[in-house]
Amino acid sequence: MDKPRPGDLAPDFELPSDAGQAVRLSSLRGFPVVLYFYPKDDTPGCTTEACGIRDDYAAFETARAVVLGVSPDTIASHAAFKAKFNLPFVLLADLHHTVCDLYGVWGKKLFMGKEYLGVHRTTFVIGPDGKVQHVFDNVRPDGHSAELLQALGSV
Q: Is 1:124 a contact under the CB 8 Å cutoff?
């Protein structure tokens, strides 16, 4: 599926959180949402990205933004990752990459000459009206939090 673009209504979904509770995107209307897709818990790039958001989390709260991290890891893996790095935001388990497919972030990747399917690191900033405001493709984990906060300033 194609990625939603700025101006599109963000596709609704429901996924289990790191605490095992269902989270539905449409229930967050009225707040800006940072929906970030990442490949795997507790890997170097994903840890850098998550910890950057963690370190700037007070600014996300000031912007009234809800941060949701999505990967195909299990609830238990998310809970361990969250606890290990003291992450203050929700991680969602997309075990069958259904939401990754819905957002167009699941596809072929290449690592050390080997091709495989996985998550393309992508972030969507969704406005309080449920519409996509910004799309960040090929995210560089280091410094991404600052980009997001800048985007939230225009939501």
A: no
